[in-house]
Prior knowledge:
The structure is a homodimer of 349-residue chains.
Chain A: H1 8-15, H2 19-27, H3 34-47, H4 54-61, E1 66-71, H5 75-80, H6 82-95, E2 101-106, E3 124-128, H7 132-143, E4 148-151, E5 161-164, H8 166-179, E6 185-189, E7 199-201, H9 210-222, E8 227-230, H10 236-247, E9 256-259, H11 262-274, E10 284-286, E11 303-305, H12 308-323, E12 331-333, E13 336-338
Chain A binds a DNA duplex (30 and 30 nucleotides) through helix 2 and helix 4.
Amino acid sequence: MSTRRATISDVAREAGVSPSTASVVFSGKTPVSDATRSRVLDAAAALGYTGPDPRAASLRRGRSGIVGVVFEEHLGTAFLDPVKTLMMDGLADAVAPLGAGLLLLRDQESVGAGATLTTAPLDAAVLVGCSGLLRESLAAVRARGIPVIVIEGDAGVDVPRIGLDNREAQRQAASHLRSLGHSRVAIVALPIRAGWSRDWIPGDAEITIDVTRERLAGARDVYPDAATYAAAGSFIDEGLAAGRAIFADPAKRPTAVIAQSDLLAAGVIRAAEEAGLGVPQDVSVTGFDGIVVDGLAPYELTTLVQPAAEKGRAAGEAVAAMLDGGEGASISFTCVFREGNTTAPAPAE
Amino acid sequence: MSTRRATISDVAREAGVSPSTASVVFSGKTPVSDATRSRVLDAAAALGYTGPDPRAASLRRGRSGIVGVVFEEHLGTAFLDPVKTLMMDGLADAVAPLGAGLLLLRDQESVGAGATLTTAPLDAAVLVGCSGLLRESLAAVRARGIPVIVIEGDAGVDVPRIGLDNREAQRQAASHLRSLGHSRVAIVALPIRAGWSRDWIPGDAEITIDVTRERLAGARDVYPDAATYAAAGSFIDEGLAAGRAIFADPAKRPTAVIAQSDLLAAGVIRAAEEAGLGVPQDVSVTGFDGIVVDGLAPYELTTLVQPAAEKGRAAGEAVAAMLDGGEGASISFTCVFREGNTTAPAPAE
DNA sequence: GAGAGTGGTCGAATCGATTCGACGGAGCCA
DNA sequence: TGGCTCCGTCGAATCGATTCGACCACTCTC
């Protein structure tokens, strides 16, 4: 049938009230008498009206109930990272009270591609990282008065950000190793730039990914000359490959490895086992993130626990505050050092 | 300043054209002379107009460019599952040409919670699984004429679904084991219902989760009496726990284990190693999903490769078709058996 | 009994853009 | 030069709901 769907005016007419009253019955913003309410509800049922059209409502109220989350990488890749997953979780929790949902957006603006920062009906946007590509659409979004916040990235001075004390935290782990007497230490870093393939990097390599750079700086604050191998991503298999490279030459084996993520650390541990090295007797390994690494038992990583879910939650709360007309404040989170059973005093020479 | 943001009418006035013409400049739906176009664009720039308001546009066009993805579980949990992640990826790809994005929705309708199926401006909805809870909101959504499709679940006869030949596929794996001469076989199943804690289950246990039931049926088609241990989720650690339970009694050790997911299988393999059993010499293990299990090398699971990304893509395409006025058709995908190095002939007694 | 307060309902304006048929003028061919 | 087509622009209606002040009929209170 070609009869178009019922609108709230139809319902109002059917119930013999004005559209405004009918609207109020559904939104509950104003008291309505029980008699009226049930008349309207009955009329709605009779007409098959299932509530106000969200599109029209969002136009009128100026709110869509949608918070965009923008990732730099392919969606599938983003969710492979447990830290991001946790963060999303916290974010989802924090925006729920706003009655908002999370819209997944990709950073790329390729032609004919999906919803973008500029075309989606967003109330706010949360950037996870921030590449150059993003910058221009960002301007448009901000011009429109949409609150923007960035997690682990830099989107310009006036965009509030949620950060982490990466350098300080990593320094803590390194200090821990030094206090255990380790002097020959290797570092397994995260990728140093987009599209990076695993390899050793020189001490003065240019590093465009903030997290990598900061954590590396922290490690080098303690071990300025530590050999560094940068992986192609945060995966156990990458850590394994890095570990193999590191333990390849028995003569140059370090007594400790600082990995920039727990997954990398897990791989390094496996490589150590492969090489016949005991963890932590022969080699100590530290991670970063404090996530649960599935399948790592019985090891418990010595690592830096970062409040991943909290970061997401904080972003959500900042968004809420900005939507309320407040100022978005930058927040920096602190990692907590957690000693597991993967670090021990350096073996006697 | 309290000057409200510029609208397209403001731009039109500034440029000395009608609003309709200005609109057309931005949408590109109708040819416009170059002179007019640049006048409008200049006016827009002068006024700081950054393009049509998506809210208003979506009201008028009747499309929001948003496809809702509804999960049964907590978001964080959903993304822990590599199969779902892949599926999301495929889905994202398939809806991109529609100019649509993915809105994450949770199944729960708790009070004051976030965006819901009924309050979000959706063009279509994709359900991942379908619990009872969902059913009612589903009715409202469908009444509104929004296409709905379900992946791995049952939302009623008239909701098209994307399925998998779980039973047939699992039977294939079991047959493979039988052809290798295995007769003492154990099964490690996925959870049999929501909130399940790992434990052995009797042969006649009631199973409310479709995937689990179907795969189990496939395995039992070949090994009707196989002891079955149901895990609490699809994780390596769960597989490890299950494996320990299975290999606990040396007298009753099976020579093969059918795991309902690759992650479970990985855990089982680890448990076997722990128990001093070689894989595949002493015990064969099969998985299900065909994902890349990070850190499982050098093993290559004998498993059933399911087209996870394809499922998502198919869902997206079905949505596109339905949005085009077509009928949404149910599709069933087929798994491909892949022999790795985790199965071998049964050891001699 | 008059004035103040109150709970509920109504009207009308508004949110901002899109779309479709109409229309005016320019170019083309005979 | 007259009729015809085609292109670009314009007007006006429309998408569906929300909101705010006005208003009305009562009920308290003194």
